[in-house]
Amino acid sequence: MFDDRVLAVLEDRWGLDVSQAAERLAGGQESAVVRLGDRVVRVGTPWRTTGDLRWSGRVASAAASEVAEAIAPVPTFDGATVVRAGDRPVTVWPFVSGDRGDDHDEQQRRQAAELLARVHRALARARVEAPPARVVPAAPVPELADATLDEWLDGFWSGGLRRHAVHGDFYAANVLVRRGTIVALVDWDEATVAPPEWELACAAWEWGDGLGTLDLAPAERFVQHYLDAGGTATALTERSLRQLVRARIRSDVAYDRATSGVGDPDPDDLAYQRRQLEAFAALRPPSG
Predict the structure, then answer these.
(1) Residue 2: what pLDDT?
(2) 130-151 tens-digit pLDDT
(3) What is residue 263's predicted lDDT score, i.e. its pLDDT?
(4) Is 262 exposed, middle or buried (0-12, 13-18, 19+ CB in 10 A)?
(5) Residue 262: is its pLDDT beyond 60?
(6) Which of 70, 81, 146, 263 matches a 20 to 30 Å C-alpha distance to 241?
(7) Do 183 and 69 meet the contact criterion of CB atoms below 8 Å apart?
């Protein structure tokens, strides 16, 4: 992905010195993420539209205006935040040194919950236009069909809950930590408008290492830390937490299957997907 077309865009539009050594960074499931000096370059997948990424950059900028840890995109000479190199979108961000977050560290879990609460408060006040339509790749997942979940989700999405912009992918790999303190929230590509309860449930599951343990207690503590910090979401019942997480698992599996490469599947990816399927079943709420 990081070819001569990308280098030309970086030099011409952002004025970056492309002769310096490029360092590939961890993360970026669908993007190439490379450090060039004090900048981070993200080269996205072709299906991400310019309008979509421009909007998510505006959400990041809105959050960054109030939350120090939120990282906003760096504009080009003429103020653009997204430029295409061939069919791939290119964005540039400030480099922040730090290690990936640790979702097994109880102190970081509390910090993450408090950070999410601050981000939600900032975005609830932000004046951000409606997002453009986003068509996310999704493959059929017949083994995760669940009419009861579908009915519950219909009620959730139509239930009149407050909606505002959210980060969309708030988990440990998208925060940077130095000396035990979260210093940055990155990767805003999944930003969207939704009830904050949706993001809270997904973040709590991720930060509580739910997939590794199938134990909801850490996720429930995360939710309480968030509520204590004054987040915009309302309290989640256990049923709501379970069903929102199951919905996220189903959409993640559909996306992973749609975007997996040709050829033999990676054994680690298959093992991860098996755990997702097990979690989807284990989290099914009791009837009644």
Answers:
(1) 81
(2) 999 999 999 999 999 999 999 9
(3) 59
(4) exposed
(5) no
(6) 70
(7) yes
CA–CA separation, 287 and 208 (whole Å): 25
Q: Is the Cβ–Cβ distance between 9 and 1 less than 8 Å?
A: no
Return the SS3 of 149. Answer: helix
Indicate where the chain has its CATH 3.90.1200.10 domain(s): 100-282
pLDDT of residue 14 exceeding 70: yes
CA 101 and chain centroid, separation: 14
Strands (DSSP E) found in 133-206: 164-166, 175-178, 181-185, 192-194
29-51 residues labelled b (16+ CB within 10 A) or e (exposed): eebbbbbbeebbbbbbbeebbee
| Cα 42 to Cα 253: distance, rounded to the nearest angstrom | 24
> Which residues lie closer than 8 Å to 127 by C-beta, 6 or more apart?
62
Please identify, in words, the CATH class of the domain defined by 100-282. Answer: alpha beta
In this prediction the pTM is 0.96
The pLDDT of residue 264 is: 64
d(CA 39, CA 24): 12
Q: Which tens digits make up the pLDDT trace of 203-226?
A: 999 999 999 999 999 999 999 999
